[in-house]
Amino acid sequence: MARKKIIAGNWKMNMTPSEAVALVNELKPLVANDEVDVVFCVPAIDIIPAMEAAEGTNIQIGAENMYYEEKGAYTGEISPNMLTDAGVKYVIIGHSERREYFAETDETVNKKVLKAFEHGITPIICCGESLTQREQGITIDWIRQQIKIAFLNVTADQAKTAVIAYEPIWAIGTGKVATTEQAEEVCAAIRACIGEIYDQATAEAIRIQYGGSVSAASAPELFAQANIDGGLVGGASLKPDFGKIVNYKQA
């Protein structure tokens, strides 16, 4: 059975609540496409207004981060219960910006992944290499390590429902896009790694996105690859062009 494409927007630290509502309303007719799962991952303060604005549409609202404790003295953090109570179904975990600026590690990513599954939230698990790592020829080794630690103690049934987002760090927000061949090579290696951890059925079920300066121009070719099941889109998700990415088959 073919995997359903999932195209998610990562708004990052953009959009006030009122701006979020305006953007959802603007994008609603542009991203109408029942053939793909459409997710807007928005800042925590935007979740509820965005959820209300998206009601009755094919848009699902996700979060950009989540802590791995239920509650407590963790000032500024968002708990899984807060997300589920708001109706959130997806959460981005381990984005390279979180790793770089907020000292997230493979181990904390794993804790968050386990907690997300515990609460019925689908994690969008990010992985990716730096330009130095690519130039040194260790991309696949690096990605495999990230994946193996992220999925520690995750069951096969849970893993089948997960989303992995491969984002080469050197392509995030730079306008540089990995070539189609580079993106497909790494996504295929990720699927093979999942097959080694679990089995072929799990590897075939899991959805793997490409992210990193995805545009309306690059989406059709990227999403046509055997192992690329959609995209995690940054800057372009804040513009009408996101509709063209979601409806990439009409490009």
TrEMBL record:
Main location: cytoplasm
Keywords in alphabetical order: Cytoplasm, Gluconeogenesis, Glycolysis, Isomerase
CDD domains noted in UniProt: TIM
EC numbers on record: 5.3.1.1
Cellular localization per UniProt: Cytoplasm
Subunit-structure text: Homodimer.
Family membership: Belongs to the triosephosphate isomerase family.
Protein name per Swiss-Prot or TrEMBL: Triosephosphate isomerase
Annotated organism of origin: Enterocloster alcoholdehydrogenati
Name of the coding gene: tpiA
